[in-house]
Amino acid sequence: MTHVDPMTLPVPDPADPAALDELHTEDERLVRETVRKLLDKLVEPHIAEWFEVGAIPGVRELARELGSIGLFGMHLEGYGCPGMSAVDYGLACLELEATDSGLRSLVSVQGSLAMYAIWRWGSEEQKQEWLPRMAAGEAIGCFGLTEPDVGSDPGSMRTVARRDGSDWILDGRKMWISNAPYSDVAVVWAGTDEGVRGFVVPTDTPGFSAPEIKHKLSLRASATGELVLDGVRLPASAMLPEARSLKGPLSCLNEARYGIVWGALGAARSCLETARRYSRERVQFGRPIGAFQLTQQKLADMCLEYVKGYLLALHLGRKKDAGTLRPEHVSMGKLNNVREALEIARSARTVLGANGISLEYPVIRHMTNLESVLTYEGTVEMHTLVLGQLLTGEQAFR
Fold first, then answer.
1. Which pTM does this prediction carry?
2. Which residues form the signal peptide (predicted)?
3. Radius of gyration over alpha carbons of the chain, in Å?
4. I need a surface site. Which of 40, 43, 59, 336 has the fewest CB within 10 A?
5. Which domains are present in the chain?
6. Which long-range contacts (CB under 8 A, 24 or more apart) does 118-121 make?
């Protein structure tokens, strides 16, 4: 073994102290840089204002821009989808959420929920009709599972679909549905005599409406709505033929949760880097606050949790690409990375002091967004119990 004096090696980059960049291929870094370049040009100058007003003006134009670089359904194959790796998709989610969780939600719901449902469980006709347009950002989709009184227990859903001749009639309500107010198509899950089935519902179908949910203090740059289905008549061809139980929607949720494992790290990175830079610029008692031990402890703790979360996400991404990723692995990643990202955001807020609550900095925006990310796609409690069941063999959900 050749001895190398470690003190002669280059000093690590403070923005990447664990040299995580070395873990990626050139192609993976190119994906990350392509996404970052687009976001810096089109979104970063405006995202604080969009958060404040609670909307993304020109969302359809933005969707086409995102589609132009393959962000929608990027890990799916065929039908205009790029067929890229799970790690590529994870890096894209990280960069999207480093800008804003609401933007990553737009992409996740489109690709990992609505498009994945059609790609995995749909008919060839459904795939041909919707996936190419959705991949290009020409059509926007949403995913209707959660209901006003049904969250973690989707088996108790009250939305129903009944046969009427060769047609289906859907009645019910869905709640907290991202992308709903401007969607062209909704994948809606409903109880039938055959169990839970999925339906591809064009949003201009009579009886369908998607009123926007107002007065949110989190994910404000993401449009959220209710799906109202009052006697929505659909042809038999609207049913997803391959999905015949809760396995259908749960498989889609697992895809979206994987993206969140990476995405939450983006919000964490943005907060950590903002706090690090601020600690070098903000002077108190005659020197930068980064020169004080308590500030350095906060930064060191944030850095360690970010690095550990990143290593976990990358490990899960490699497993997904190898076909060995289990839902329990995704629960572990979602539970850890979102929880730690929120703690990083809260700690970063304290480093910024009063400036931490200003939209002049991204920290409070990330912090409030992560409060929603902590809950959706499976709450902390549910993912804790998934891990608990794995460790003990005992199911504690009920």
1. 0.96
2. none
3. 22
4. 40
5. 20-135 (1.10.540.10), 141-245 (2.40.110.10), 248-392 (1.20.140.10)
6. 118/187, 118/200, 118/240, 119/73, 119/76, 119/79, 119/81, 120/242, 120/251, 120/252, 121/198, 121/240, 121/241, 121/242, 121/243, 121/248, 121/251
Neighbours of 27 (CB within 10 A): 12
> Is 96:102 a contact under the CB 8 Å cutoff?
no
pLDDT classification of 292: cutoffs 50, 70, 90: very high
Element (H, E) at 274: helix 247-281
pLDDT tens digits for range 351-362: 999 999 999 999
Tokens 């839902």 — which residue? 327
Distance CA 339, CA 341 (A): 6
Of 95, 97, 305, 377, catalytic: 377
33-91, pLDDT tens digit by residue?
999 999 999 999 999 999 999 999 999 999 999 999 999 999 999 999 999 999 999 99
Spatial CB neighbours of 52, under 8 Å, sequence gap ≥ 6: 220, 359
The residues, ordered by sequence, that sit 6+ positions from 185 with a Cβ below 8 Å of its Cβ are 114, 130, 134, 139, 140, 141, 142, 200, 201, 202, 203
- Cα–Cα distance between 80 and 70 in angstroms, integer? 9
Cα 159 from chain centre: 25
360 belongs to the catalytic site: no
Per-residue pLDDT at 353? 98
